[in-house]
Design goal:
The chain is an all-alpha fold.
Length: 267
């Protein structure tokens, strides 16, 4: 199915959660029903002459990242619950149970985040780009340690994989190998506007916003009460208000990360 409907648009399509451009093979790889080598062989044999090398290269990178995670887990078995970069042991996390539960339930007031978290609970799957965005929101906007996110994903993902899950969360938090730079903080509103422009993915899982127009669906919390009321939506009643200010929380995270970096340089 992936060869027939996904691989030809994989490079760009894999970023759009409403599109069918990802392989959905991860559970079958995890449980040993198919191997990465078999996948590469089948795809190479089925796409000869179709000029899809650029698409294949991006797909190979994802398989390579997965094996890289296994290599890291083998050499550093503690990365399942300990920071690979030990300077992050001093990071000032704020373990707020209320905010964590809002994130887990998909009640953050940011539709793309809520759609991803509800997709996870309902289906056992979450689109990869949305995994990165929801992960960044937890650790960098809510300032909650990555281990809580990794545990939640481990409990709910059908493709839950100890190596890949642990390394991916450490990448998002900035404390893993080849990690995202500390200043890379995904904005769930702009990401939503870019990768779910018509709100199709959001409407699938955040059903209370199905009647919300495209221009408001990415950030209804910032729309006027009167504007939303014309579409039968009231923030705080039909859909939750944002649980955090994106700009302030981003600035706080940048300040904390910068201080941690300067502290490590002094020591």
């Amino acid at each position: 199915s992936f060869i027939g409907t996904g691989i030809e648009n994989y490079k760009n399509g894999r970023n759009f959660p409403a599109q069918n451009s990802v392989s959905r093979l991860s559970p079958y790889i995890h449980f040993g029903e198919i191997s990465p080598r078999q996948i590469l062989r089948e795809i190479a044999g089925s796409t000869q002459g179709l000029k899809l090398e650029e698409q294949l290269e991006h797909f190979r990178r994802e398989l390579a990242w997965r094996d890289f995670s296994y290599s890291l887990l083998y050499h550093f078995p503690n990365i399942t619950d300990q920071n690979m970069n030990k300077k992050f042991d001093q990071y000032p996390w704020r373990d707020n149970r209320r905010l964590l539960e809002k994130w887990q339930k998909g009640e953050t007031g940011f539709p793309l985040i809520d759609a991803g978290m509800r997709q996870l609970r309902r289906t056992g799957f979450m689109h990869n780009r949305v995994r990165m965005i929801t992960g960044s929101f937890l650790v960098k906007n809510l300032n909650i340690r990555w281990q809580y996110g990794a545990k939640w994903f481990w409990d709910y993902l059908v493709d839950a994989d100890l190596a890949n899950n642990s390394c991916s969360w450490q990448w998002v938090a900035g404390c893993g190998a080849d990690a995202a730079p500390y200043f890379r903080i995904f904005n769930p509103v702009s990401q939503s506007e870019k990768f779910d422009p018509t709100g199709s993915y959001i409407r699938t899982y955040v059903t209370e916003l199905r009647k919300c127009p495209d221009k408001l669906i990415h950030d209804p919390g910032s729309a006027s009460r009167a504007e939303l009321k014309t579409h039968g939506i009231e923030i705080g009643l039909h859909y939750p208000a944002p649980i955090v200010d994106l700009r302030n929380s981003r600035n706080a995270a940048l300040t904390a990360y910068k201080a941690l970096k300067e502290q490590a340089q002094r020591s």
